[in-house]
Fold these 3 entries.
Entry 1:
Amino acid sequence: MTSDFSLLKNLQQQLTDLEKKQLRRQRRVTETPCAPVVQVDGRQLLAFCSNDYLGLASHPEIINALKEGADLYGAGSGASHLISGHSLAHHQLEEQLAKLFKENFDKAGCLYFSTGYMANLAVLSALAGKEAEIFSEELNHASLIDGARLSRAKISVYPHRDLTQLESLLKQSKANIKCVVTDSVFSMEGEIAPLPELLALCERYGAWLIVDDAHGFGVLGEHGHGVLQHFNLHSPHIVYIGTLGKAAGVSGAFVAAHHSAIEWLIQRARTYIYTTATPPAIAHALLKSIAIITSDEGKKRRSHLQSLIHAWRSAQQLQHWQSLASPTAIQPVIIGSNEKVMAVGAALLEQGLWVGAIRPPTVPLNTARLRITLSAAHTHEQLTTLIAAIHDCEASMA
């Protein structure tokens, strides 16, 4: 009993330390659907913190498709994909997604995963191994970092967007399998990775280019196909991971690549093989989501989102805080200290504005920031309210 109590006491002390450093995270309870205006802990707030970039999470047609999927397939899948859990809805979703990427791969295949985290773990652990070397972008998402560790490969981290250093590392590598791994849109900066240049290096040195397009699929590209369409990239070296719980508004993720790479994932990806398949109703709802993304409605939503991004960037008059020059729906405002960003977040919340206050270890020390995310569901009037509030906070708190 004494030993157990000591362990619990140690955890309590560590939680107290997090509190002192302004690093303890808290959950808020949302009581209404994901939308710009939400009910949170009994209060109505104007939210600029979700990743629902196209405003599809509450789209009535997708909601109806989810209901229809439950009627057709029931509440759960009952087993893993390789036992009896792979439904017609999963199959149709993978087929539809593969069609989106026929311009990027000679023989495109697609595999659906329950989450983006699981997809990233799957790709890195299955394609790399003890004999491989992974070249990981400095600002990669935690799921890519964990996937690299799980692979047991040698890991070399290259500085953010530093192509010269990456090429030097590739030249020096003696590994039989080389994997360059990067986010497409960096989730805390909003920048887009230099994928054409990265692909050229991978083709030159015989490496995989593994791209996590969590914040690009649905938003980037003429038809919302993501960063590969944005840059018009075509290569068997690419393994593409797209998220379906952000701009697509539902849940899960997928991997698109040459069909041989997809078949290998089916045989070796542990987060695919050893988990119960996502309920088929989710996949059925995603079929409607994909249809909207690639339709004229999706194009209009992306156009409106771009107008909001332009309006935000044009209105910036910050004197002390730094607004990063992001071309995407992610618009960070770097404030600096944990204490200051928490105070600003609280001040905005007092005014009815919900904005994410991001601190280490998610971002580097002394770069705590507001992570403002824009959605096609926002209006210009709502954005004007946010801009005025942030400028007022800076004037009174900087």
Entry 2:
Amino acid sequence: MQMSALHTPPLVLVHGLLDTPKVFDGLRRHLGGRRPNLISPALPMRLGRTPVLQAAELLATTIEDSLGAHQTIDLLGFSMGGVIARSWIQLLGGAQRIRRFISIGSPHQGTITAQPWPGGVFQGIDDVKWGSNLLLRLNRDLDPLRRIECHSFYSALDLVVLPGWRAVLPVGQRTMLPVLTHPQLMRDRAALQPLARELLRP
């Protein structure tokens, strides 16, 4: 059963490191206008030089400017956008207004591909290295995540988040999508259909 548009909270989509809001065009088509109150802010990631928490602060400002300070929302983050969204939820008070958090291919447990990059320059990439200060801080207190509904989608063979099974939140439901690459998580029908079903669930 799909939710009534009259009772559907706004949906906020958060893009990843090298993406723009256009990365969600395929998902929007699959939703077919059934999530009418949808925003997707453009966050200046500067090729990974913007720290994740700074991007989360920009996300918080955009949400408040667009939807006010108290409107309950659903939140979806793709790739690094999932870690940005999670940082807002756990560290900046976002949990108070979240109904459902959906993460897609996000390096919540770090990724090998971030390890070679110099952290002094690429602070955002440094934040998603294995054992980064940010990820350790997020994992110290999971209560904000436990208070909301969380669902992680991932690809077992994701070549951006390595290994792919680490692209999941530490709490909530986990679903492996039948796609082979990171970009396919936002492009392939086999991924977009189950994502749309989740977003249309009451």
Entry 3:
Amino acid sequence: MKKNITLLHANDLHGQLYFTVDENYMISGGISLLSGYVKKTREEGPTFFGICGDILQEDIWGSDYKGTNTVELINHISPDAISLGNHELDYGIAHLLIFKECIEAPTLCANVVISYLGKKLFKPSLVVDVGGVKMLMIGVLPKAFFNKIMSDEFCRNSLSFTDTYVAIRQEIEAHKNEHIDLVVLMSHFGIDGDRTLAENMPEDIQVDLILGGHSHIDMDEAEVINNIPIAQSSYGTTHIGRFDITVDTEKGGIDSWTWKRVKLTEEVGPFDTGVDELADKIVFKKKPQLDNELICRFEDCFEHKSRVLESQLGDIIADSFADIYPIDMAIIQSGSLRRTECGPDVTEKDFKELYPFDDRFVIAEMTGKEIKSAFDYLFSLKLDGSVMNGTFQYSRGFRLVVDAQDCWKKGCRVEELSLNGEPFEDDRVYRIGMTKNCANSTFRYFSIVLKPENMRTVSLSTYSDLAKHFLESDERIKAPEKNRFIMKNFEG
């Protein structure tokens, strides 16, 4: 018998909750239109709605509420399942476990295991009946994101990562007697990772569909790799992905399918006023009041257009850390800067939006040999096909030259690494300043674990220190000297 169902999927919401209005007063995007479209589709026929990672976001509001405001809204929409993305790991394992309990939908991840119990930390899969079609939904996460929590000693000793193909095989085997019609992966591997997953799928594993996330791409059509359709649904709440599938429930598997990326407007679905009112209640009334008091003046409007490359704002913030603390150099995560431009007048509101995080600041002692090894690893080609698991801005005096030619085939090559014009000396100990969040992620970024005896906290509030530093600036802040980080042959 053949049955028709609809699979709706979203990904990388990143706390983007609000609609926009164009010059013709047309509303588009936002959590309220997303909710309205999901409700409408469910009323029209058998529907599954899943979100493939990155519900949360370390933005100006997420920093204050750690995503709890977003969680309340997601619960109102009632997805049938969600899978984990890298941003669900932003605040550490303790927050992630609380997040799992706050989200009412099943949170799926088949890769993470409590080692000494041999038990999955999250619900690995979900069997759901949609219009008489039994689907096995399996959540999968790349090992690179798992490594993000491995800098914590307790996690390293307690958790392990199961290879994705092994995890998929385990879940299919666990449900082999339930007459599963479709096996669907809810992935956050990125489009290249999903392609690799599908291309290398072992012959003994039957996967019918991959719903993905992480790449923030606008796909005009689903891709088919190794007979497996793959699709992602843009970024934020501007669009939703839609599969309309005919399933052969006697033979199992997909008989036919269509996919489209639906732009969320009032033309395709109703505006959910209930969600809109809830958003106003839990976000607008809770959000901190930001002041228009002047913090400082820049000489010009400075930019931070790319996380991968050196930026004017990145240089300014990194130099400020180097001025404030007794360090040889500062390294800051490019993603901690949340505005693409700022200035010339910088108010408290501007500054909070530019640098919304309040973290501890630590000094790590590392030898020159460790630093060189760390940057060699950062730019190397990883087993999962990634090259840079982190992007950074650096303080004055640091110089890094990298050749990115054919980086996706053989990784990038570090051609120059120096401080104040001198190469890093293997046996010399350097004081590297960074946020606590960065220090906790060095295993993921650089394949090193900072030892507690080689690290000390020198501030409990990076935001307050930076704000005070800028408030004390009597003159307009100029753009610092550039060329600290050069990517040769880089395309992106």
